[in-house]
Amino acid sequence: MSSTAGASDPVRGPERPRFPRIPRPRLPRARTPRPESSAPSATPATPGAGPHGEAVLRVRGLVRTHRSEGSAVRALDGVDLDVDRGEFVAVMGPSGAGKSTLLHLLGGLDRPDGGQIWLEGRRVDGLSEARWALLRRRSVGIVFQFSNLVSTMTVADNVELPALLAGASARQARTRREELLGELGLADKARAVAAGLSGGEQQRVALARALVNEPGLLLADEPTGSLDSRSTRDVLRLLTRFHEQGRTIVLVTHDARVAATAERVVSLFDGRVADDAAVESAPRGRRTTLADVLELKG
Amino acid sequence: MRAELRWAAADCRARPGQALLVTLVTAAVVTALMVAGVLLQDAVNPWQRIFSESSGAHVWLHLDAGTGTAALSRLDGVDAVAGPYRTAVVTVPAGTGKLPLELRAVGSAPPRISRPLLRSGRWLDPAEPDGVVLERTAARAAGAAAGARLAVRTADGRTRVLRVLGTADTADSGPCPDWTPGLGWVLPGTLAAVGPADGRTGLVAGLRLHDPADTDFAVQQAVTALGGARVARVSTWQQVRTAGELDGRLLGLLLGVFGLVSLVAVALAAAGAAGERVLAQVGDIAMLKAVGFTPAQVVRMVVYQHAALALAGVALGTAGAALLGPVLPDPVGPAVARWHELPGGAVAASGAAVAGGVVLLVVAAVAAVPAWRAGRVPAVPGIRGVRRVSRLSRLARLALLLRLPPALVLGARDAFHRPLRAGLTVARLAIPVMAVTVALGSWATLDGFRAHPERIGLPAALTARAPGLSPGAVQRLLAGTPGVRAAYAGVETEALVPGQTRTVTLRGLGTAAAPYPYALAEGRGIRDRDEAVAGQGLLDLMHVRVGQWVRVTTAGTPRILHVVGRSIEPEHNGQMLSVGLDALEGRDGPPPPQYWNVVLAPGADREAVRAALAAASGGRLDVRPVANPADRLGAVRVVVAGLVAVLGLIGLAELLTATAGGLRDHARDLGVLRAMGLTPRQVTAVVTTGTGLTALAAVAVGVLLGLPVSRWLIDLQGRSSGIGSGIAGSPSPGALLLTCAVAVAAAVCVPVVPAARAARAPVTAALRST
Fold first, then answer.
1. Which of B6, B15, B18, B298 to mutate against chain A (most A CBs within 10 Å)?
2. Is this complex's ipTM strictly greater than 0.90?
3. Contact flag A209-B293 (C-beta cutoff 8 Å)
4. CATH topology of domain A47-143+217-297
5. Are the C-beta atoms of residues B184 and B90 closer than 8 Å to each other?
6. Tens digit of each residue's pLDDT (9 = 90 or more) over B434-450
7. What residues contact B64, with CB distance under 8 A and at least 6 apart?
8. What pTM did the predictor assign?
9. N or C: less crowded end of chain A, CB within 10 Å?
């Protein structure tokens, strides 16, 4: 990643790391691809400490079936997944592969029909909706493709809302919001109503909102799905930067170029993990992200 | 907490019109309920307050002069006896007429029991032998303030000028001139001077009881101890209290009933608006949950928001009651204006707080169901409830068969394709329509009082009295005057009811051969000398029904009468027993008439006949118009008009909700329709047809329900006030049609703007939105 961009870049902002880095050794990238048929029985007896030590997220045998008017669609059919601290994982797959369902289950927005989820060593799949909400406030930030913001609120209120929820005072929330929006080049939009922003701006505000409580895990569901290439580049740059700051990111996308931003790609097909590979081991050989490509061109 | 409040505030800002409307109608309902509370309290309070402050007597016995009253203080349950005082009835000029005034001879020190509470001037003074202290309402009726000179006319025609020393409140009698005679206090020497020449004065004694509930028993004992023949009239504290509260109470009840109906309507409107808002915001709520709102927080958010709107409404309503109340017509305005001055003001304020609190609770509580639904919105974005698919309704298919325009057909389908939802919308809209129908019924009833007084027991437009003329002369005079259809001689006397617990008014009017045209609600008219008709108040008092026999005692003579009918009785709380004048015939023929009720020929002008009678008699005939209860109920019209306005606002709020719901429900359908080739105008027509048809159904249901409810409520009020059921008028068809037309027109016009906006939004956006 190039760091030659000036401090005036509205998206990248100044180089000073705003979030304290979590000191930890970089983990080796290479990992053995998980076989497609990995059975839930392979679950270690004591979750939390995976083969690589610090698993932020650990999923075993996740099953979710969508039922509507007599027909049942098995969206997830026994998914296993480990995400280590500081990893940037892209989940890919065609439409209907279960990507979004997986993300919703990881964020507690939906309940699995079977399987287990551990978040930072804690079993969370049986948590009530309210407990999940409390967990999300501190530990999980989520960005969607659409309807990321409360349309009737201002940008400032949208960003401050999670901070206030997590117990910050109005002053603290305002300070954090000002810092984040400033960093994202949206300081002048603070008073605007969310519905009046462009798609790219909305996604950047959504990122600010997801990050205001400095969560350990960021879940992003097609965050660039409805954006033009310039906005896509901005958003991906931000994600990359947050990753560099030590944040764990799980990104769902059907766009290979977007997935290339990540360091590891998990492919879902018909509700099962079809492939799980580090980007560096991909045939391309050199790890070039879309952000880099666009930056070079621009 | 802060996060929830921030969302609630943002949501209110996003829909200021709806929030304002909910606040306004809540405020209006609070105002109505508070004024109702003040009226109902004011109706009871002054008497209660005066009674305790003056150590009032519970029972007053009007006795023949010379009755020994020593036995009274020995009766069981009697704590103290007021008086006995000698009394004389005189008349004083009051406006254009005369006011009978009962003067009581008391000492120069105010009595201990039932002490008149001096409000202005000073008490009687032996140094002012011609001084009189008047009861406050009597002084007002006579137009006499402290220091004024008052020309009193004695029973035998002498005139004497007294000096008003002061005015006082008392709990002994009701407000003058409704309650006659008025009351005044003089020194014994003065009474002797204005009393009858033969020195035969009346006597009055008050009983203060240990237990007010024992009133009936105490009266019975007292009458037995003194002898029934010596008791001319009995009045009890209940009668005095009721007399004082009559008008205010009726208005208070009216306001209260309408206030409560409006409260229900407001609650439903608020719940509907909240529910609609939740459905419209499913996406936002899912997002809030993803951010970390717990379901409980989402529920609280919606409840807080509505509680805040209700609180604003309560505050606004309280201010409205305080500012608007005093300028309302009598008796509402004065009652509200006195609200804070009264010693009971604290009680009234707490009552107002209760009214506000109840409204606040109700409006916040009805938000609970939509709030609960909001709490259950799934956190996964983009999930909507399963859409119910329905075939074209029968109505729609019929419309297609008739080759009606497509907008009409689709609108009809939109209106009713989800029966439960459509039913709820119709029901919510029907409630204000029903209440408006009831309000129109009250209005029509008042119109009926004025247009057809004969139907509420007031067939006579004039009463004539002639102290100086012989009955025969008066009869000839009346019969000879053009415009007079008939004149009925009458007397009124007090009669003791069986058990001797109280007196009622026995009226002899007309004869068995030429019966008075009573307004009969049940049974038949008088055909025989032992037959009588009675008002509802009397039937209730004596626990009898039409067809039964009653026994009453007048001047010591027992009479057994067959109650053959129930008449509508607007006077004396309906506690009226009416017989023919010939039924009261004694040994020396029929009693001399006290007055004549003059029934005018159709089309005759009341004032012209009155002037003609006065001229023909050379001024010796005192002719007065009969008071119509509608005169005292003018404030009802203001109240009804105000309530109709409030109900209109509530209906408007419901329409906005229905429109928003319709548009949201069909946002995608409308996109499809436009993609298929409907013009924006046709799309607007689809939406307005939908709401118009819903409103039409609601109006039909509301009016059909409102008509019997209106009749039932008004008759209930009539029955409880003693006038009797059968007074309810039906709203005029014109007014009803106007109501329906306005409601349907509003239903068609309100959605035009939002529907046009939806119709002009890009088709692609409409298609994508669901």
1. B6
2. no
3. no
4. Rossmann fold (3.40.50)
5. no
6. 888 988 888 888 888 87
7. B202, B203, B229, B230, B232
8. 0.69
9. C
